[in-house]
Amino acid sequence: MPTSSGQVPRWRTVNIIPTERLGRMLIGLAAIVGGALLLTAAGSVLEVLLVLADADLLVTGALGHCPLYQKLGFVRPR
Asked: Structural domain boundaries of the chain?
């Protein structure tokens, strides 16, 4: 969605290659399920952090934008 100046906001740019996006989504989803199973069994803070970290993988994969890559100046090859 372009801004009033006609530019796409930096957080909307895709900077993850398609194969990495797919990998992030698959690993993130599998790890969320595993973390949720551990959370129901143990219920400690570590499992909550694991699920949140895995949710980050899933979201960045789905959106195709990684804020860390942006900070490091990584630009997706065309």
From this structure: 16-72
